[in-house]
C-alpha cells in the first residue's frame, strides 16, 4: 500500500529545519503515478518564495485591526495531539480498484481536466514553495489527503479487534468525476455496488452492520445520490442511497441539507498543509498583520443555466461598480483563479470575502478565505451554516456576515441590498472580534501534511475522527 510504507523510509518533511529546498520524498507508488508538472507549476515554484514575502507576509504594516493580538498558544487547537476518548481507528486495506488502483489512469479521472499533477504527493498536488507547506491542491481531493493522514495517524491500530472506529478509504469522488458522462447507469454504479458487497462480507462490518464505519468523499453528496426509481439523471451514482451505506457515517465536502442525516460536512482542502505547529502559528501571525486595503472582494466567474447564477451575477455587478471591492473574474481557462498565490493575495488584502453559491451551495473559497484571515460573507445558509457543524462556530455571526440580497427590501420595491452599505455598517470592533475568531479557526479547517504524525494542533482530520467516534458510540448505545 502507498501510505503503509511512510514510516519505513526517510522522510525529510519530518525534520523541517534540516529540509533542503525541493527535496520532496516520494514512495515508489507515488513516483509511478506522478507525471511531469506543467510549465505553470514550474513557474509557481520559482516565484513562490518571492511572492510569499512580497505579497502577503506583512510584518510591519497593520490594517485598521492593528489592535489584534496573536491567539493564546494554549488554545485547544494548539495542544499536542493525543487519542481522544481512547480512539482506535482501523483502516481497511481495500482492493486497489477502490482507491490507489484508480490512480493508474489519472489522465481520465476527471472528464474536464488531467488529474495526474493533482493526485501527486498524496493528493496535495504540486509543491509551491521550499517550506514544504504550500501546494496547488485541487478542491476535490479531500478523500486522498484524509486517507494519507489516517494511514500515518497516531491513533491508528492494525488490529481490528482493538478498533472502535473503522475507515473505508474509497476514492469515490475521483471515480465519480470520471463517470459523469457515462450513459449506462449500471456502469456508473458498478464500483459503488461492489464496494458495499465487499464490506458486507467483512466480519467487522457484520458485528455492528457498519454503524462504526465511515467514508470520506471529496465531492458533494449530490454527486452520490442519483435515484434509481426512474427519476432525473442527477448525480454520478447511487452510493449514498444504498441501504447499507445509510448505516455508516459519511464525510463529504457538502452534505444534503434535508436528506443527509448520516452525512457530515468536511472542509474543502485549501493550499496550506503545515507539518508542525510553528508553521501554523507563523501563518496566523502574518494574517493578523496583513494590510487589508479593500473593504470586500469577490473571486469567481458568471454562471449560466443554474438557479444560483442570479446571485453570482449580482455580486459581480456590485463589486465591479464599487471602488472598495477587489474583483477577480475567472475566465473559461481559469486564469489567475487557478494560481493559489493570486487567490490568496486578493483574499489577504480584503476585510470581507463574498461567498456566492456555485454549482451547489458550498464553495471551496470559504476555506480559502478563513486561511487568509478574510471574513466570509454568505448569501445562503447552506453555504456554511448547515454544513460544517464540527468545524465552524454554531453562532454564524461570530465569524461571518449573512446578507439576504432580496429580503424585505425587494418586497417594498426598493431593489437589491447594497453589499457595500451593509458591510460599511459593521463597526471596527466587531470586525476585530470576527477576525480573531477566524484566526483561531484556521488550525481545525486545515489539512496538515500527511507525513506528520503529530503536528502539535488538531487539524481537520483530528476534528473529524473525534466527532466520528462520538457518533459511532451514540449509534451503538454506548453513551
UniProtKB/TrEMBL annotation:
<dbReference type="InterPro" id="IPR004263">
    <property type="entry name" value="Exostosin"/>
</dbReference>
<keyword id="KW-0333">Golgi apparatus</keyword>
<keyword id="KW-0328">Glycosyltransferase</keyword>
<dbReference type="InterPro" id="IPR040911">
    <property type="entry name" value="Exostosin_GT47"/>
</dbReference>
<dbReference type="Pfam" id="PF03016">
    <property type="entry name" value="Exostosin_GT47"/>
</dbReference>
<keyword id="KW-0808">Transferase</keyword>
<feature type="domain" description="Exostosin GT47">
    <location>
        <begin position="85"/>
        <end position="405"/>
    </location>
</feature>
<feature type="transmembrane region" description="Helical">
    <location>
        <begin position="41"/>
        <end position="62"/>
    </location>
</feature>
<keyword id="KW-0735">Signal-anchor</keyword>
<protein>
    <recommendedName>
        <fullName>Exostosin GT47 domain-containing protein</fullName>
    </recommendedName>
</protein>
<keyword id="KW-1133">Transmembrane helix</keyword>
<keyword id="KW-0812">Transmembrane</keyword>
<comment type="similarity">
    <text>Belongs to the glycosyltransferase 47 family.</text>
</comment>
<keyword id="KW-0472">Membrane</keyword>
Amino acid at each position: 500500500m502507498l501510505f503503509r510504507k511512510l514510516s519505513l523510509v526517510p522522510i525529510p518533511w519530518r525534520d523541517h529545519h534540516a529540509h533542503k529546498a525541493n527535496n520532496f520524498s516520494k514512495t515508489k507508488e507515488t513516483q509511478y503515478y506522478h507525471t511531469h508538472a506543467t510549465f505553470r507549476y514550474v513557474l509557481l515554484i520559482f516565484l513562490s518564495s518571492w511572492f510569499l514575502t512580497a505579497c502577503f507576509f506583512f510584518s510591519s504594516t497593520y490594517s485598521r485591526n492593528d489592535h489584534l493580538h496573536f491567539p493564546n498558544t494554549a488554545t485547544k487547537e494548539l495542544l499536542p495531539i493525543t487519542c481522544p476518548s481512547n480512539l482506535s481507528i482501523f483502516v481497511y486495506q481495500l482492493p486497489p480498484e477502490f482507491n490507489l488502483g484508480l490512480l493508474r489512469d489519472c489522465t481520465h479521472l476527471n472528464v474536464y481536466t488531467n488529474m495526474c499533477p493533482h493526485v501527486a504527493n498524496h493528493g496535495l498536488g504540486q509543491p509551491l514553495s521550499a517550506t514544504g507547506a504550500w501546494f496547488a491542491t485541487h478542491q476535490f481531493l479531500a478523500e486522498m489527503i484524509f486517507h494519507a493522514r489516517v494511514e500515518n495517524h497516531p491513533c491508528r491500530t492494525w488490529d481490528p479487534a482493538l478498533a472502535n472506529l473503522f475507515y473505508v478509504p474509497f476514492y469515490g469522488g475521483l471515480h465519480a468525476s470520471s463517470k459523469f458522462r457515462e450513459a449506462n447507469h449500471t456502469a456508473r454504479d458498478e464500483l459503488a455496488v461492489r464496494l458495499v458487497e465487499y464490506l458486507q462480507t467483512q466480519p467487522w462490518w457484520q458485528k455492528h452492520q457498519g454503524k462504526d464505519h465511515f467514508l470520506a468523499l471529496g465531492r458533494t453528496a449530490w454527486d452520490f445520490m442519483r435515484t434509481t426509481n426512474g427519476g432525473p439523471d442527477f448525480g454520478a451514482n447511487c452510493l449514498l442511497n444504498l441501504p447499507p451505506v445509510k448505516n455508516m457515517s459519511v464525510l463529504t465536502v457538502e452534505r444534503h441539507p434535508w436528506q443527509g442525516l448520516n452525512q457530515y460536512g468536511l472542509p474543502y482542502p485549501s493550499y496550506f498543509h503545515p507539518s508542525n505547529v510553528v508553521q501554523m502559528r507563523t501563518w496566523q501571525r502574518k494574517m493578523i498583520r496583513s494590510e487589508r486595503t479593500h473593504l470586500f472582494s469577490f473571486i469567481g466567474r458568471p454562471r449560466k443555466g443554474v438557479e444560483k447564477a442570479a446571485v453570482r451575477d449580482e455580486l459581480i455587478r456590485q463589486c465591479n461598480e464599487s471602488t472598495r471591492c477587489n474583483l477577480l473574474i475567472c475566465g473559461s481557462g481559469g486564469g489567475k483563479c487557478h494560481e493559489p498565490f493570486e487567490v490568496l493575495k486578493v483574499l489577504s488584502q480584503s476585510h470581507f470575502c463574498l461567498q456566492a453559491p456555485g454549482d451547489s451551495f458550498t464553495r471551496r473559497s470559504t476555506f480559502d478565505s478563513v486561511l487568509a484571515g478574510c471574513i466570509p460573507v454568505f448569501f445562503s445558509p447552506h453555504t456554511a451554516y448547515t454544513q460544517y457543524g464540527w468545524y465552524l462556530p454554531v453562532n454564524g455571526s461570530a465569524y461571518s456576515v449573512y446578507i439576504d440580497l432580496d429580503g424585505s427590501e425587494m418586497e417594498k420595491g426598493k431593489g437589491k441590498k447594497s453589499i457595500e452599505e451593509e458591510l460599511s455598517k459593521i463597526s471596527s470592533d466587531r470586525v476585530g472580534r470576527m477576525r480573531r475568531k477566524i484566526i483561531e479557526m484556521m488550525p481545525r479547517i486545515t489539512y496538515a501534511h500527511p507525513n506528520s504524525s503529530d503536528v502539535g494542533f488538531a487539524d481537520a482530520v483530528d476534528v473529524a475522527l473525534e466527532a466520528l467516534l462520538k457518533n459511532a458510540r451514540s449509534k451503538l448505545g454506548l453513551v
